From TrEMBL:
Listed name of the protein: Histidine phosphatase family protein
Organism: marine metagenome
GO terms of molecular function: phosphatase activity
Pfam families: His_Phos_1
């Protein structure tokens, strides 16, 4: 059985500002690096066999921190890349709603049926995520594997694992540096943990000093 640790990247300035990054490049903020260090410490005894990452900088930085205690190289997988929302990259929800109201309304209320230039369709999205999950589990049928990726990718992976229609995309959320665990075998996929951020809550109260955002 493959144990898959799906890890959302640490925080960025755009996350803090509420801006859609899409596939634009942006590194982790000081807060984000701190979050991922806590996550890496938690995973340090997990005996990871491999670490995969989205091609984007924020995910690769996260993967490097996660992989270091295990002395592993990072494998880049485009299947775990961010949802392509290039039409709205750099904008806040308020700005998008003002500039692109019809598309925004569909995105908020019926994302499965949004078909518009500059927005990746959910049909395409679920196909590549399923392909990525199948590839990882086939390559590591008995190992522990970490994948550093993005909010939307983890959401879809959870829905696929549970057999829940993608219409329920809005019903799940994923925190920065949140950990979701899937156990995958030849028959089915089991959800063992969802958006676990215990590694952050345990130490937030003792954290001191300003963050380099």
């Amino acid at each position: 059985m493959t144990r898959l640790y799906l890890l959302r990247h640490g925080s960025t300035k755009s996350n803090r500002d509420g801006r859609y990054m899409s596939r634009s490049e942006e590194g982790l903020s000081g807060d984000g690096r701190w979050e991922v260090r806590q996550l890496a410490q938690r995973l340090s005894s997990s005996e990871l066999a491999a670490v995969y990452s989205s091609p984007l900088q924020r995910a690769k930085e996260t993967a490097q921190i996660i992989a270091q205690p295990h002395r592993l190289n990072i494998a880049i997988s485009p299947d775990f890349n961010e949802l392509d929302l290039s039409r709205w990259a750099g904008l806040t929800a308020t700005e998008i709603a003002a500039r692109d109201p019809k598309a925004w309304d569909i995105w908020c209320n019926d994302p499965m049926n949004l078909s518009i230039s500059g927005i990746e369709s959910f049909v395409e999205l679920q196909h590549r995520i399923r392909r990525g999950l199948d590839q990882v589990s086939a390559s590591h049928p008995e190992g522990n594997v970490a994948v550093t990726t993005h909010d939307g990718i983890v959401r879809i992976a959870v829905l696929l694992a549970l057999g829940i229609p993608l219409d329920h995309y809005r019903a799940v959320t994923v925190s920065n540096a949140g950990m979701t665990i899937l156990d995958i075998d030849s028959a089915r996929t089991y959800l063992r943990a969802y958006n676990d951020t215990g590694h952050l809550k345990d130490v937030l109260s003792v954290r001191t000093g300003p963050a380099d955002r």
